[in-house]
From TrEMBL:
<feature type="binding site">
    <location>
        <position position="122"/>
    </location>
    <ligand>
        <name>L-citrulline</name>
    </ligand>
</feature>
<feature type="binding site">
    <location>
        <position position="174"/>
    </location>
    <ligand>
        <name>L-citrulline</name>
    </ligand>
</feature>
<feature type="domain" description="Arginosuccinate synthase-like N-terminal">
    <location>
        <begin position="5"/>
        <end position="164"/>
    </location>
</feature>
<feature type="binding site">
    <location>
        <position position="271"/>
    </location>
    <ligand>
        <name>L-citrulline</name>
    </ligand>
</feature>
<dbReference type="GO" id="GO:0005737">
    <property type="term" value="C:cytoplasm"/>
</dbReference>
<dbReference type="GO" id="GO:0000050">
    <property type="term" value="P:urea cycle"/>
</dbReference>
<dbReference type="InterPro" id="IPR001518">
    <property type="entry name" value="Arginosuc_synth"/>
</dbReference>
<keyword id="KW-0055">Arginine biosynthesis</keyword>
<feature type="binding site">
    <location>
        <position position="116"/>
    </location>
    <ligand>
        <name>ATP</name>
    </ligand>
</feature>
<comment type="similarity">
    <text>Belongs to the argininosuccinate synthase family. Type 1 subfamily.</text>
</comment>
<feature type="binding site">
    <location>
        <position position="122"/>
    </location>
    <ligand>
        <name>L-aspartate</name>
    </ligand>
</feature>
<feature type="binding site">
    <location>
        <position position="123"/>
    </location>
    <ligand>
        <name>L-aspartate</name>
    </ligand>
</feature>
<dbReference type="InterPro" id="IPR024074">
    <property type="entry name" value="AS_cat/multimer_dom_body"/>
</dbReference>
<protein>
    <recommendedName>
        <fullName>Argininosuccinate synthase</fullName>
        <ecNumber>6.3.4.5</ecNumber>
    </recommendedName>
</protein>
<dbReference type="InterPro" id="IPR048268">
    <property type="entry name" value="Arginosuc_syn_C"/>
</dbReference>
<dbReference type="GO" id="GO:0004055">
    <property type="term" value="F:argininosuccinate synthase activity"/>
</dbReference>
<dbReference type="InterPro" id="IPR014729">
    <property type="entry name" value="Rossmann-like_a/b/a_fold"/>
</dbReference>
């Protein structure tokens, strides 16, 4: 019987390695695609594992620059976090992976694609909305929703039976890594009374052992995106590597949160995004003095919608793109240098400079007189605004 071709979004981890074997048992010719978006050693491991599992077509693509340029930076320009905390590090990677998977499906003449996301999470939605956007005829196999290996323990047994080697930590948590963040879910974290153990965190030092002197950093933004650190230019990848390193040794960017998944389940996730946290902090401070007040509030009101769209998997939707265009349009004001101090898990502002600054010292200062502003005018301002309250 002729085998059907299927392109699998392959991370090299426990779930997707099992999926290779499982799909092969269902008579598929499995083609793997691994997006290199900065997950380090995992790429090499994925390649070796796919080979061991008899995959003939193994695609690996370096997408680090594209990830930062076309997904990370556009998102960061919103300066907004999902449900107050989450920097969307997984949500912004999925649309890129779906796009690349669909390219491979096209080039290899595959009618099927597969992913390792569970039926309980957001990633299945993100992947599949992307697949459908690029080719609505593609057939999607999501093994987690249909197989009987429906627990981590059953998966581990399957691995032992089929000689698939899995490292210790992957056994403990569901981990997703890229240049922007690491995320940890599942295992002991499912118990809300359990404090995340220190050796779970891979990308940040705890405050207890982080370096005990402050680090000063100047971040230069051009049209909303960071381009320099301490007056040196960095390309996208190196900028993140550098900021991740500094943030990491200073214990920056760890969170442990409960979030609302799109399908209505609450879940606990631990995230570490040292570099992204530094950029987000600096960007917010830049916005505060270069953006017009009403533009700022308008952007804020759109950003709530924007982050929900990104989280829920609507990266390719017309409304996300519309809001993105508005957000992008505002970035022309976001030029300047933000100097910060990083110490023991905290970032504080040292000073700020921008030639787009709207701050007017003469207006603001209690010690100076401005020609543009008369204090006596405030009396009328209050009189008129209080009228409603008086009536
Ligand atoms: N809860 C986060 C999100 O929905 C992270 C998901 C991480 N995915 C994973 N396979 N561990 O964006």
């Amino acid at each position: 019987m002729i085998k059907k071709k299927i392109v699998l979004a392959y991370s090299g981890g426990l779930d997707t390695s099992v999926i290779i074997k499982w799909l092969q048992e269902q008579n598929f010719e499995v083609i793997t695609f691994t997006a290199d978006i900065g997950q380090g050693d995992e790429i090499k491991i994925a390649k070796e594992r796919a080979k061991k599992l008899n995959v003939k077509n193994i695609f690996i693509k370096n997408l680090k620059n594209e990830f930062i340029k076309n997904y990370v930076f556009p998102y960061l320009r919103s300066s907004f976090l999902y449900e107050n905390f989450y920097l969307l590090g997984t949500a912004i990677a999925r649309p890129l992976i779906s796009k690349e998977i669909m390219k491979i499906a096209y080039y290899t003449n595959s009618n099927y694609v597969a992913h390792g996301a569970t039926g309980k999470g957001n990633d299945q939605i993100r992947f599949e909305l992307g697949f459908k956007y690029f080719n609505s005829n593609i057939k999607v196999i999501a093994p987690w929703r249909i197989w009987d290996l429906n627990s981590r323990n059953k998966l581990l047994d399957f691995c032992i039976k089929n000689n698939i080697k899995i490292n210790k930590k992957t056994k403990k948590y569901s981990i997703d890594k890229n240049l922007f963040h690491n995320s940890y879910e599942g295992g002991e974290l499912d118990n809300l009374l359990f404090e995340a153990e220190e050796n779970m965190w891979e990308n940040t030092l705890s405050n207890e052992i982080s370096i005990d002197y402050p680090i000063y950093l100047s971040i230069t933004f051009k049209n909303g995106d960071p381009i320099k650190i301490n007056n040196n230019f960095y390309n996208n990848e190196n900028l993140f590597l550098k900021l991740n390193k500094i943030g990491s040794i200073c214990g920056i960017g760890r969170i442990d949160i409960i979030e609302n998944r799109y399908i209505g389940i609450k879940s606990r996730g631990c995230y570490e995004s040292p570099g992204a946290t530094i950029i987000m902090f600096s960007r917010k401070h830049l916005e505060s003095f270069v953006l017009d007040k009403e533009i700022f509030f308008f952007k804020e009101s759109l950003s709530i919608k924007y982050t929900n769209l990104v989280y829920n998997g609507y990266w390719w939707s017309p409304e996300r793109i519309l809001i993105q265009n508005i957000i992008n349009n505002i970035q022309k004001y976001l030029n300047g240098i933000i100097k910060i101090k990083i110490y023991k898990g905290c970032i504080t502002i040292v000073n700020r400079y921008s030639f787009n600054s709207l701050y007017d010292k003469k207006n603001s200062s209690f010690d100076e007189i401005s020609k543009k502003f008369e204090q006596i005018d405030s009396q009328g301002f209050i009189n008129i605004n209080s009228l409603r309250l008086i009536i």
